[in-house]
Amino acid sequence: MSFTGFPEAALDFYDDLEVDNSKVFWEAHKDVYQQSVAEPMTALTDELADEFGTAKIFRPYRDVRFSKDKTPYKTHQGAFVGVGPATGYYVQISAPGVRVGSGFYHADAERLANIRRAIDDDLHGAELERLIATLSKKGWEVGGDRVKTSPRGWSADHPRIDLLRYRSLTVSRDYGFDEVIHTPELVDRIRKDWRQTRPLIDWLVRRG
């Protein structure tokens, strides 16, 4: 199945799901989810797999066991291409449109320590600074989970303390309602953007 774009019905589906996140709504519109969201996402990631690898398409159901929010369904559909531990390329569709990203989304204590040691190193740390600065200039939004103060063992006046504070580090870009999301050209747009972030992914895999 070739990717032809996400139909308007995909955005409408998530608009409505945000208003009525219930099993009754889901069962009544399950065919819309399947045809307008799940199938196009599978086709999209299949076309990108030759270069980036096979994607994991996340289940639409929320894990509510330990959450105060008991709404049963996610209000977005995400897919992730992993190239390292919790590291790789991401795409999602939701009511606000399409969003892409790259980076590492979680690290255990050992891996996070390795990344921080690499950031501390003048050569490797400066390389990461340049990569992040380049992506920022190209319009990528830098984000991730950060400690509020200095991580244990690191001085607040470290020249790269802002990077050392990250417990996860991502870059993302919104396409929103750009007409491209409804066309086959979305594949090439994502391919180009993921390629831009590949040096960051390579750094994280090597240094983690």
From TrEMBL:
Annotated signal sequence range: none
InterPro entries, sorted: CHP02453 (IPR012808), UCP028451 (IPR015996)
Domain of life: Bacteria
PANTHER family: CHROMOSOME 12, WHOLE GENOME SHOTGUN SEQUENCE, DUF2461 DOMAIN-CONTAINING PROTEIN
Name this protein carries in UniProt: TIGR02453 family protein
